[in-house]
Design brief:
By secondary structure, the protein is α+β, with helices and mostly antiparallel strands. The chain has five helices and seven strands, in the order E-E-E-E-H-H-E-H-H-E-E-H. It has a four-stranded antiparallel sheet with strand order 1-2-3-4, covered by helices on one side. Strands 5-7-6 form a three-stranded antiparallel sheet, sandwiched between helices. The two termini are 44 Å apart.
Length: 209
């Protein structure tokens, strides 16, 4: 929508969704999608052959609610999966398991088939993160995002090595368990994954190692 002389109008629906309007006659309506206080995006409705009215606003409100509920369900499912991965990796690193079959079974339930492979465990410390947060006066949300980005880089590094594995966060550490084939060098593979991850993190956040 181009610039308009009149300021945007708005109304609140029964669900207290703020629907904003632009144009005379109304040519666009939109509403924000907010997940537990965090802005996620917007839904827009554009005028095709008739001005937008309150019925369109009601439909927009319902769409925002439905999308928000779906996103929250997905986020909660991802959170539960992340927690399960973290618990498994912590158990592996601390030797809290009865057999390798238990590890294979739990890993397979989380989407990684490690059965029949040699396992290596990795723990990569984001050692400069605390200092970086203090120096740049970053918020806790910023810190969480940096951790999430580091986790994503670990997953990319494992995938780039064409290996199966799981990764999760443990505070300022990224933990991973990776399954190797018979021909894979344990030391070289671990070094390659760690270096690739570190390079990705450094590209995303200057000054972080």
């Amino acid at each position: 929508v181009g610039s308009l002389q009149a300021p945007p109008l708005s109304w609140e629906t029964e669900a207290e969704t703020l629907v904003r309007l632009e144009g005379d006659p109304t040519s666009c309506a939109w509403a924000d999608i907010t997940l537990r206080g965090d802005p996620w995006g917007r839904v827009h409705v554009l005028n095709v052959d008739s001005p937008i009215d309150e019925m369109d606003g009601l439909a927009l409100d319902r769409a925002v609610a439905a999308i928000g509920l779906t996103l929250l369900a997905d986020r909660d499912a991802d959170h539960l999966s992340d927690h399960a991965r973290g618990a498994l990796l912590s158990d592996v690193l601390h030797g809290r398991y009865e057999s390798t079959e238990e590890i294979f079974r739990r890993a397979k339930g989380l989407g990684a088939d490690l059965e029949g492979k040699r396992l290596i465990a990795l723990a990569v410390e984001l050692r400069d993160l605390s200092d970086l947060v203090t120096e740049r006066e970053l918020s806790e949300r910023d810190r969480q995002q940096i951790r999430a980005d580091a986790l994503a880089e670990m997953k990319k590094a494992i995938s780039a090595a064409d290996l199966a594995g799981l990764a999760a966060l443990d505070g300022d550490r990224v933990l991973a368990v990776v399954g190797l084939g018979e021909e894979d060098s344990i030391c070289q593979t671990a070094a390659n994954i760690a270096e690739r991850m570190a390079a990705g993190v450094a590209r995303g956040v200057e000054g972080l190692r």
